[in-house]
Structures are given as structure tokens and as C-alpha cells.
Amino acid sequence: MKTETKKCIDCENEFEIDSGDLLLYEKVGLKIPEQCFFCRLKQYSAFWPFGKFRKGTSDLSGESIITILPNSPRYPIYKSHEWWSDAWDPMSFGQDYDSSRPFFEQLKELQEKVPRPHQVGKDNKNCDWCDDVWYSKNCYLTRSIFKCEDLSYGYRVIECKDSFDVANSFNLQNCYDCFACHNSFGINYSENCKDCIDSYFLFDCRNCQNCFMSWNLRNKQYCIRNQQYTKDDYEKELKNIGLNSNKKIETLKSEFESILKEDAIHRENFNLKTTNSVGNYLTNCDKCINVFSYEDSQNCRNQLRGLGNKDCIDGMGIFGAVENSGNNSCVLYSYNVKHSSWSLGRYSEYLDICDEVEYCFGCVGLKKKKYCILNKEYSKEEYESLKNKIISDMEKRGEYGKFLPYSMGICDYNLSTAIVYFPEVKKEFILSKGGYWSEEDLSSQDGISSLELPDSILDTGADVSSQALICPETKYRFNISPAEYEFHKRKGFALPRIHFDLRMLKKARKTAVLKGYPYKCFYCKKEMMAYYPPEWGYKKIACEECYKQNIA
What we know:
With about 550 residues, this protein is α/β, with parallel strands linked by helices. The protein has twelve helices and 34 strands.
């Protein structure tokens, strides 16, 4: 197999481009990248905000908005319904191409004139305190969700309902504090579980009901610490556990972490119904190589977070039947789109927040347009001629084939999705690349430390929702919402003590492992690569075959 070894222009580490990459680069029409996989993702991250929710006003109407976009953005911000309306015309910002100047410089000028919607998503109801939210209802302080209802504090969640503190999970109802759980009802403080009901502190359990502090169970009921109980004895034990106490919850969380390290059997990866693939958290995927947190996709490479795609390479946040595309950040429902961000289109390059466009190059904010360059419309012949001229000029300057530069990033880098996957990135590096870094102090002293809350929820009343709290770790201010209090009261659970964003980050970072580490199978001692950093301390990791024989 043909393989090329290159040196990354950013981190200077060597990386390989294998024959499968080369074939897909050729099919999509991409140049071979000069950055390694990780540095490509770092740059894509600059276009995916993870800012703190804040109040502001629309630059069009003055109407109140709630957004995660920067306090002092380089571009106007309109309320989403205004952005989608006919109240403004993105073509009015069109500009002529100047061959004497770098193309990225001109595209950045256009980007800074064109407004952006205050919130990403569509067809939502009562989801003002959300972002990247789609077809959802009554959700609060959530990000990257699809078809959810009555969900608070969620991150990358699909079809979940009546739940709080859920990350990377699908099809949950009445659940709390769950990570990577699927198709379950009433499970709490749990991780990597499927088809479970009314349980607590479960890891890697399947089709279990009424279980507590257990791991690797299949088709069980009334188990505590992997020991079988009768129904009556289980219920008696559960009453004495004391989930209403924060101190008790913290003790149980420590026990759970110890179980993950010492007792639980871990699969070498979390792939399900996946064939001929290399990566982690893949579901229903085939021929996906170096791909992570991906579902229902085929023949994709070098990707992070996506759903329903085919023949895509080099991307992050690619969603919904994207095909034959590459070098993109947050592109959806597209065909042959390259070097673009937050756009939907066909046969186009260098787009930013464009919707349903065709044959466009270097455009921002266009909707249902064709044959446009820098937001100016041309005839087909004029478009092809000018596009070829621009590409020729870009190639001479070393621009063409590269992703949008850090200087076009839509948020401060330390308030982007990079904090999930690359928290080690330094301010000096981002500034040297022309990017942005927030120096804003987001801490607050206007409230009491959340550690001063009564230990037991039984000793609190509904008025706790009016108390401003300060997170002991982030120093951010937060509140217990009325719906959150009622949920915890009904469940009998202690109230949280740390800020909701940090709670989500701690969960999501378990999916941020983007390379395998060498291990020997706990059972057969075969050498393998598994997605657990050594510092996690997991002692029992099994290859796929042994896991199936002994656990599944």
C-alpha cells in the first residue's frame, strides 16, 4: 500500500497519509493536507463555539437574544428568525474580487459585514437558552441536540426526554447524569448502558432493571454491586443508600470510579454494528478509518462527530447525508462541498453560514443562490472563469486547498469546542496563527458558594431556585432552575454543586480520546490498541473477541 509521510506545518510532528486517504482526497478533489489530523481538528474547532450563554441584543432590531457568540464579535448578530427572514439581503454585501490581494483577506472582510444568527438550529419551541439545537421543545442550557424535549444540561444528545445532565446519549427518558447511554428509562449516574430501566451507578450494562452500582451485567434485575438480591431486599437496601445527600453521592461517585479502574471489563473500543473501521464511538459504520463519534456512515476518514455521511474526509461536525465532501467544519446535508463552515450546499467551496447554495465560491450568509463569488452573482460562464482565476491566484499564494484560517474563526478559541478535545492548546499558539483568545473574567462573586447548600435536598425548599450560586471550580455563577429542583426533589437526589458547563465538559472529554494506546488483552494477553489513556488507570481491558466471549 502506498503511504506518504509528511511533517505537520503546525506541530512539526510526522504523520502518514495512506493509500485510502489518497484515493478519497482524489475522489473529493482535495489537496493532500500539510497539517496532521489533530492540527486540522484544532483549526476546525475555531468555527464551533462553546461559549458561555449570555444575554444580548440583535444588531438589526435591538430585540433581546440569548447566545454563546462573543460579547464583542467581529460581525453583526441578528436574532435567528430575523436572519432567516427577508428583512436583509446578503447579496447587498457583495464585493468584487481583487487579484492583487490574498483571497482569505477579502473573504474575511466579507465575513465581518454579513450578520450571523444568534443561535444555530431550526424548528424549535421554547429553546432560547440553547445552541446547535434542532427540532426540539422545552430545552434549557443544552448544546448539540436533535429531537429532544424537556431536556436540561445536555450535550450531543438525540431524542431524549424529561432528563437532566446527559451527554453523548440517545433515546433516554427520565434519566439523570448519564454518559454514552442509549434506549433507557429512569437510569441515573450511569455510563455506557443500553436498554436499562430504573437503575443507578451502572457501567456497561445491557437489559438490566432495578440494579445499583453494578458493571458488565446482562439481563439482570435486583443486583447491588453485582450481587443478586430478592426484590424486597433490594428495595430495603436502596432506601438506606441516601441519594438525597451530596456527601453520600460524592462517596458513591468515588466508589464508581474505583470500580471502573479496578473491576470493570472495558472493551477495546465502543463501536457497535461497525465493520472494516478504525476509531471509537462508531455506530452502524462501514469502512470508516480514523473516525470518532460517528453514526450511520460509510467510507469516511479523519472525522470527528458526524451522522449519516458517505465518502467524506477531513472534517468535524459533519451531519445529515453529507457526501463526497471534505476539509469542512460543521457542514450538513451537502454534496461536494469543501473548505467550508456551517453551510449546506452542492458543488461549492469556501462557504460560511450559507444555506442551500449551488456552485458558489467564497460566500457568506447566502440562501438558495447559484453561481456566486464573494456574494456577487454571475452567469455560469463568468462564474467558472472567475473561480478558475481565483484558484490560480490562491495556488500562487499557497492558499488554495487550505481550510478557513484561524483569523476567520467565529469565536475566541478558548471558548470554542476545542476546550473539549484540545484543552492543552495555548494562547500564544492561537494568537500566532491570527486567531482570537478571550481575556474576559467570567467568574463572579455575586452569590454564595454552592458548597454552602444544605447537604440533603430534603433540607431545601423551592426558594433555592432564587439563590445565586458560585461554582467552587470555575467560579461561574449559576442557579438551580425551578424545573431542576422539582426533578431532583421527585428523584430524591442531592442538588449539583458545580456549574452545568463543567459538568458537561467532564462527561464529554471521555470521547475526546482520538488515538489508541497499546495494551494487552486482560484475558488472552494479545497486543491491541485501545482508547484509554494510561492515566485513567483502567486495569481490565479486553479485545473484541474476548469481550464477546466473557461479557457480551
